[in-house]
Amino acid sequence: MDFFQAEERAKRRTGWLIALFSLAVCGTVLAVYVATRFALHLAGKGVLDQLWPYFWEPRLFWNVAVYTLLLICAASLYKTRAVSASADAIALGLGGRLLDPNTHDPHERRLLNVVEEMAIASGVPVPAVHLLPAEPGINAFAVGLDPSRSSIAVTDGCLRMLSRDELQGVVAHEFSHLLNGDARINLRLLGLVHGILVIGLIGSMILRTLRAGDSGKRKLNPGGIGAVVFVGAALYLIGSVGVFFTRLIKAAVCRQRELLADASGVQFTRNPAGLAGALKKIGGLDQGSRLLAARAEEASHFYFSEGMGRWTSLLSTHPPLLERIRLLDPQFQGALAGGQLSPVALEEEVAGVAAAVPVSRAVPAPARSVVSSVGALGEQHIAYAQSLVARIPQRLRESIREPWVARAVVLALVLDRKPETRAAQMNALVSVGDPHLADQVARASTALQTAPVEARLPLVDLALPALRRLSRAQYTQLRAALDRMIRADARIELFEYTLQRVLLRHLAAQFEPQGQLPPAGPPMDVAMALSILLSMLAHAGAADSAEAAHAFEAAGGELSPGRFRLALLARQQCDLRALDRALARLRETAPRLRAEVIGACAAAVATDGTVTVAEGELLRAISDSLGCPMPPLLPGQGVAAIRPSGGAARARAG
Amino acid sequence: MAGWIVLGILILAVVLIVSVYNQLVALRNRYKNAFSQIDVQLKRRYDLIPNLVETAKGYLQHERQTLEAVIAARNQASSAAQRAAAAPGDAAAMRDLAGAESALGGALGRMFALAEAYPDLKANTTMNQLSEELSSTENKVAFARQAYNDAVMAYNTGREVFPASLIAGAAGFVEARLWELERAVEREQVKVSFA
Questions:
Q1: Is this model's pTM higher than 0.90 or not?
Q2: A533 and A506 co-located in one domain
Q3: Would residue A586 count as lying in a domain?
Q4: Do A403 and B19 touch (CB under 8 A)?
Q5: What are the tens digits of pLDDT across the range A352-384?
Q6: CB spacing of B154 vs A403 below 8 angstroms
Q7: Cross-chain residue pair A88–B29, CB shorter than 8 Å
Q8: For the structural domain made of B15-191, what CATH number should be given?
Q9: Which residues contact A165 (CB under 8 A, 6 or more apart)?
């Protein structure tokens, strides 16, 4: 199953969920009505026998229905907003601490390295990493609505008890949650459960106020008190029953997502033993995966493994541990090492990465011409990411975790090779107002000379966590500096555009008040948007207009025939602002169409038989803009169309 | 009907208070995080200084006092930084840290000024590397301090605007203090840069 099918399926499943939840909400409304009716009757000191003929009162029903629905909606909206406001909020709420990217603690260093590798391998920006230092159990979770604002948290036990392979397995599992968009579904579930929970809360609040009010000897007629007690108790009961059922639904969905994440986690690392080992350690640990934080339940469905003790497997958000292990390791006999585990001894981690994981362990790759599928990464991507990271000078790799250096490196990446353009760019930098900036960028540029060309975009991915720690004023300055440097030579190059696009897309989520920057101008027709995008790509790799026409033709062939009327635009007509608008439009289309679009883009780039590094980077940036993270194109990999049934436009990258 | 309206208003008020509170917590976390960035750089700087003094000792044998002053200032700043890290934004801790840091800056400045008179020391590679590292760390401290001040400013504004101002005091959101530089010392530091 590829990324787009997964996304489509997730959407369908969300539809089902909403249907099920609507049923639960209807039940709740009816129950509240029945309770209110009884309560009113009690308050009027009526006899039960006289109740039945007048039981149904439409006006009362509509009143009750409207207020109950309003309450549920408000509560679930509030919860959804509170949680989506910041991925960090959940981790911090559970007692998490943001790991310092510069940390010298060897365990923390190892975790950050594993996360960075996985991020480069999958084309997702490096997420924030939190540690739950007070949790001795082995557990982890990933939260975040979109990859630009996601966060991975692991417990202290996870950090210290697992070997590197096992840790990698756990991190891969969490990344597949991020890639599969599970957080989005989970968030909706969380919001709806909370909406129904509030009804129960109000019930218990009424009961508690009454108990407190007893001592005050308030003058209420006994029937009135009886009615209020009844309403309180009934609301409490309805809330509890409702929450129970909605949790059942939530748990059932979560268990499916977990199995999927296990499967894709193994697909990423090609090392079932790692993930299985981590699960076995959880089974063997006294503490297991249980979390101690008081608010642990709130995020239970995000965890790597069951975070709560449950009295029934129906409510578990995770499949049974033994079943998960058996799926990964068929030879498993069910014997878990009991008692206490001791922290693992660390292998040498100083060199950063590649040393610790021998690439030779990878299973023989089926073929070099792997269809590069968006949102999925294979073990060769991880190996590639490791070798790429290893080729970046170590000093640069370490210092890029600091905001001060990350900023300079990103700016240095757009420095031109021609001396006169370079001078103009440096002048533009001075005008930004920070006296140290130009000097710092010049140094970063020297450091960059030894880094491989393919590492340019991955360096941006590596710089993102540090850049997120800039203050808003510093971000604004960086944006201005980048803009002035890019415009210094009065023309925008493709790489400059790509870099700006990737950078701002992932930083805007945090720094721009309204989230993403909406492009100026009226919304665009889809066919027009496609024409602009594909013309742009066709011209980018073509020497003359005939070649461009050929590439455009090939790209059009990847789309469903007859659906869109496409026209090749002249080179002069393709400006980057139009491209921005086109991408914003295409971002909103259905997943299946987006899959076709990326297939078409790949074809446009690959028709001339070569994919340059710049073209590959542009392709990844476009895919990223469309909300589909794409792993790096591997040297020698066939750029077959990404569409599942796609044609075979082959080319050698690099 | 009136009962429902009162209930509605109550619920709205609760929702408002909770969201304002959460907003303040987020802002406070942000500036505390920003301080931890400074802290990392400061620690690195405090680790560098003893090495620097050790290297300089061989050349500046007659300037024992200056060197001791640097070490003393470094120790004082280091403990002030520890106190500030325990309670970032606390007025007294931040004032102490800013004071100790500018004293350290002054002491270092005097040492570099002395070093100007010793060509051997100026030519020493270790010394050059260390002072290069030191000035780069100083730039990073300045940058991180700017980020910290921005975050504190956002937090302080956040707790002073209506309606947050109504609950900020009661909920224990005290004003955080900026890290301000004492101008005189700062100027002195610039003057004696090690060329």
A1: no
A2: no
A3: yes
A4: no
A5: 333 333 332 222 222 222 233 344 455 666 777
A6: no
A7: yes
A8: 1.20.1440.20
A9: A269, A271, A273, A274, A277, A357
